[in-house]
Amino acid sequence: MKMMDPTLAEMGNHLSDAMKILESGKLESEQGKERRKLSWKDFPGPLQGDGQDVVSILQLVQNLMHGEDEKQGHRMQYVGEQGHMALLGHSLAAYISVLERERLRKLTTRILSDTTLWLCRLFRYENGSAYYHEDDCEGLVKMCRLAINTHYEDYATEGFTVLSSKPPVIYQSAASRPGLGQHLCSQLGLPLSSLCIVPCNTMFGSLHQMDVALLDKLIRDDRESGKLPLLLIANAGTPGAGHTDKLSRLKELCVQHNMWLHVEGVNLATLVLGQVSSTVTAATKCDSMTLTPGPWLGLPAVPAVTLYRHEDPALSLAAGLTSSQPVEKLRALPLWLSLQYLGHDGILQRIKHASQLSQQLLEHLKTLASIKTSVEDELNSPVVVFRFSQDSNTPSSGGSVKGNVAEERDILDALNRWLGEQLAQQVPLSGVDVVELEDEGTCVRFSPLMTAAALGTQENDVAALVEKLGEMIPVLSCTLRFRQDFKDEVLQQASLSYIEDQSWPGLGVVRYEARSTDLDEDKRQYRVEKINSDLLKKLMELDTDLYFSDGPEFCEEKNCIFIGMATEDLDVAELVETIVSIGKDIEESGKFFENMTEVVRRGIQEAEQQLQKANEEKLMEEGVLRQIPLVGSVLNWFSPVQASVKGRTFNLAEGCLDSTEPVYSVKAQMNKEASLDSPKSVTKQFPGQKLFRRHGAGSDSVSDTSSVSHLEESFRETAHVQAIDAEEAEVPQEHHVHIETETALSDQRVPEGQETESVDALR
């Protein structure tokens, strides 16, 4: 037995250690972290002259991979041992490429022949050849070139000129990958007129399968118009719903019209299982198929494989399917190593495990109300697509979704989009995502064949997914039922505007409108923006389960309040009236701030005029002699003047000065107490109960009142504190400000009884 090359063993150990270091993220010390924050960032630096060691270089790679995010949840997923074998293949490819030419040729030939043989046997594709490529579309491009070289004999010498007499046509299903046909035309140099999109079934069969009868008609029409049907792209698992075309019927059609049949899709992975549906088994008779074993088996950086059958090696070479360069043949090395590491049983176990996860989820979804599934074969479907839909048996309180079918679908699409995002966030190991289907709309997709191997999805993850889904269905149902109630309540309020936004997954969108009509458009818009901004802050501070926001980042509607999902015990009327109450208080408070500067300026001018008038009257009443300092003092001593202090009140609402009585302070205090004691509508909130909830979940009882008591108290306290701060800044905040105008001279002596009376008046 030969000993293993020590260089290879050392390379494998170094690579394994490097992967563990990069995955763990524990290479860097605390001092190194501080130095990194100050040094590397995103700025490139000069190349060091003396070089760096391996640890320093790995440290730089680790920093670039993880950035400044120290949270473990955001780190890259763990790469298993089979993943390390795939990564080792890339390092070995670079090492093997330096071998002498003859030895390299023998080694690459062995790697290619072994890998091709294993894949053809695994996926039941007899007498096939393999082309390994990094881009999963590249294999299809090569198949098109092979078909062109086969149908146009002079294409190798004359090029595209031979295509003008009989233009080729490529047929593609409407359910295929978006942009696939355009990519083919771009790579092949063909016009977009060479691409024919075949619609899916509309009456019989799956809505995601290609309409075979219509395809036959299109092919015949193209032949009659002088075109050449070249290639047909079929799906064994559409990208959206995972449905399989009628491959047997399509193969017969391609043979009849001498066309090339290419098949791709996730369902091709099930060919390795013992029991395979007949629709997928028909893919083994096609001319070519593209496999993506990387995501199916959890292998990073392994190439995609296109298996094909063709008898002319010269045409294959002309199409670029074979190469004389040994280095290009080493693309299969990572896959060669990984397949050996997993073995036949390991590959079978991973594909089978993914299929079992799909069946487990499908069985649970059947027991959930308001969930509609879209699968091709309930007994053997590796892709599960489901959607929340309105249950006709669900009771409604007059708030069911009204309007045309398009609006109802938009609302359901928004709710399902929210559902998919929440499930992906709360159960990340499930690998669910949101998919847009032409007929069903927005759905949630579970495709474990593409995600389970990399994420490590297990049965308990599917159970957690079903549990979360069961918790979210009542929330979705209540939100859908209360949307119309919320709209009706908002439309009854003159100060609120209901914003139609079917794309918002929540109760609805509302805007508080300014009631002033004497403002120009710019000022009114500014006031609306300010009121709604303050209103949103107040609503977000409330003790409630409702979610308030200013909407998505790229929302067209501005200055609005977006209200999130609702629960069963939501009191919609109380919610709307609370929004109106808070908005009205903010609007009235804002009017005082806006008008205060002009009102104060006019009031000061009027006060100055009255003070000047009072001084002139005092001069006429007392005479000129009393104004002389020395003479006036002596005269006032012998003959005092009976002077009084006249109070003035400054009304901010009317902007004028009024006279006051000596007992004004007593009357003001009485008025203040009376206003505080006046009856107000308050919400009866039970201990431990949050706002906007009816007492007793699920009952029809509602709150006795229309506003929230502690909300009003907190808002009054806030307004009172603002008033005090504004008074200290010499800006009045109360409705009445007292300006005392004293008409007596500062040095005038006031009799004893009248002095007390004047002080009381001042107070």
From TrEMBL:
Keywords: Coiled coil, Decarboxylase, Lyase, Pyridoxal phosphate. Residues 754-763 have a biased composition (Acidic residues). Its cofactor is pyridoxal 5'-phosphate. Residues 486-591 form the PDXDC1-like third domain. It comes from the Eukaryota. SUPFAM superfamilies: PLP-dependent transferases. Residues 381-480 form the PDXDC1/PDXD2 second domain. The keyword Acetylation does not apply. Residues 597-624 form a coiled coil. GO terms for molecular function: carboxy-lyase activity; pyridoxal phosphate binding. This is Pyridoxal-dependent decarboxylase domain-containing protein 1. The lineage of its organism: Eukaryota, Metazoa, Chordata, Craniata, Vertebrata.
